[in-house]
## 1
Amino acid sequence: MTDMKLRPAPNTPEQETSLTDRSSMNRRQFMTYGFNAVGGVLAASLGALGFASILMPPSGGGGEESGVLYWAKGREDEAWYGAKHLQPMAKSDFVAEAANSNVGMAGAQGVWNGLPVVVTYVPHSENGSSPIADNVPRFQFMAGNDIAGNYVGHATEYMMNNPDVFNADNNLVMIFSRCTHLCCIPGWQLVSNSFTDDNWTPGGGDGGGSKMFCICHSSRFDPTAIEVNANSNRSTGQRFTYLGVRRAGGPAPMGLPIIPIIMNGDVIGASTEFKGWLTYCD
Ligand code: FES
């Protein structure tokens, strides 16, 4: 396959140089992105129906749970879940795939109520009581600051007040996959570079791999770094705070919101309770 260089968004000269050197994708990956981008445009074109109507389950109303399906279109031969395209996500699949990882992590693109998501398996139960070290991934609960640098809140406190929003004992985190930069669809190992390598460093910074990566302008997000942050409703401008994963680098101004997981046995479902967090894109 032909490798094509990505063009990072204008940023610091240092970032621009390093990213241009390190980021590339092959033609199939580019086509995959193209499809995803079109999907994003189509979703945006549903504005007449309203965001809530594509988010809500067919039965309507609030608070329902709905299944999460694998999304591997265009990557059937490459993704570990390629043969499971549009099948329900199962935790046991992630556990099995994580056994092939150096650090015991596994992630997959998904679709939930028509929205793009990424589910990542993190061996938190196994590693959470071990000394913090490279390549021993765990969930990290952190303080978050908004784009102006103002403290928004701490994940631990937020989870105490909202116990249903995230359960680290599941070893799973589900993330709304619309970039906070310009609403492209970040992915799990859709491209190969130092940010997506099969390794991990603590701290929620830009070192190490196992990041979600947005190929539009190279933003990175750490699915293990749980924080509180703030964003705004695209239509109304109303600010909201949310529990999400940390932006590790790139032009995205803040991290991506979590979608609360509801397990039905081995099957991964999700709650619409915090759908307001998903309103920063059209
Ligand atoms: S849309 Fe620009 S980095 Fe994601």
## 2
Amino acid sequence: MRFSGLRVLKEGLTGNKGWGAHWRDASPREAYDVVIIGGGGHGLSTAYYLAKNHGITNVAVLEKGYLGGGNIGRNTTIVRANYMLPGNAEFYSHSLKLWEGLEQELNYNVMMSQRGQIVLFHSDGQRDALARKGNAMLGQGDDAEMLSREGVRRHLPYLDFDNARFPIYGGILQRRAGTARHDAVAWGFARGASDRGVDLIQNCEVTGIDIENGTVRGVQTTRGAIRAKKVAIIVAGRSSQVAAMAGMRLPIESHVLQAFVSEGLKPAINHVVSFGMEHFYISQSDKGGLVFGGHLDMYASYAARGNLPGVEHVMEAGMALMPMVGKAKVLRAWGGIMDMSPDGSPIIDKTPTEGLFLNCGWNYGGFKAVPASGWATAHLVATGTPHETAGKFRLDRFRTGYGLMDEEASGAQHNLH
Ligand SMILES: Cc1cc2nc3c(=O)[nH]c(=O)nc-3n(C[C@H](O)[C@H](O)[C@H](O)COP(=O)(O)OP(=O)(O)OC[C@H]3O[C@@H](n4cnc5c(N)ncnc54)[C@H](O)[C@@H]3O)c2cc1C
């Protein structure tokens, strides 16, 4: 079933009776070449690129709930390529390029909107740091523009420019950054993978990983045992728990991150805007809701809901930056479980168990990574060697101390990244 303007027109005129299911609802088979644990954005994109780039289609994605019910459906949908350090820079640059062609690639409307992101700075020191980052982004081949205070005012006239405590000195704009519809990304990759023969199995929780003589043999699930030549753990906030099934203790802490959406409003905010003094960022969805968030709740938890001090903090930051948002009613708030690594950068690597692979450590920035992560993980699983854009995402960097990519210079404290 291909989507096109003509098809939408035809279905609209004939009662929308011709649309089929977007993917097959598969039941588990006895054995697969590859089993992917986790039906989030990264698991689904890995399955898609295993089939598309490597012709490996005897694959199952095992999801304990429903596809897209994890963080892929809970994030604030920001897509950008503004990393500075080698390792991250080329990876996120690759990801943004994949995003730019994703709708055509998947024949699916993921509502990619390159509306631009502006990160504000509020001191000379912050300006210097962001100028340096902007130069690194340009050096990587991505776009970045420094804006003066007046330049920011032209784009974002509704900000509080008279706030003496947090004066706005300027900002850095990435025009190619923006937003995409989060769950459509999961659905698009799911549909593409399923069409190529991948089994997507929902309500199938992995409860154990079978290992014999240092080699993975398969998994135990709530729907029975499944044999597999290769297994990839791609479960974001549950990474430590699932890796423990293979006897691994990961350098990952799970933390809650909240997000909020207001009632639908007329178009007011054209960009993604990030406050430079507090962790607060905002955009407006196509339905009109203001979508915004802030920092982690600051203690480790597996609860996919947040707490009131976090809510207060985000609202305060929003009011300090743009007092006009105080008039909007907040309709919903929710939380997701973030897989925080000690340097704020991800892991895509083999494990000490032969045939067992790991993809995790996305912190609160893994949505924008979904296409490149799937691309790189599929490459690793298929060929046994890291993809050139993800060669630095090694697990052993936390043991040896070599190759750490501490983008925020926060040190080895998971919740500060
Ligand atoms: C509030 C919030 C805002 C965010 N904002 C952004 C943003 O603006 N930009 C950005 O780039 N990133 C953002 N992120 C981060 C991003 O959403 C995550 O990094 C990314 O979605 C994680 O990867 P995933 O999609 O594969 O995870 P998930 O969707 O969580 O997928 C993992 C899946 O594994 C399944 N699973 C777990 N255990 C098992 C098991 N034992 N057996 C089978 N299945 C299992 C889970 O049910 C889940 O569906 C945000 C996150 C949150 C919560």
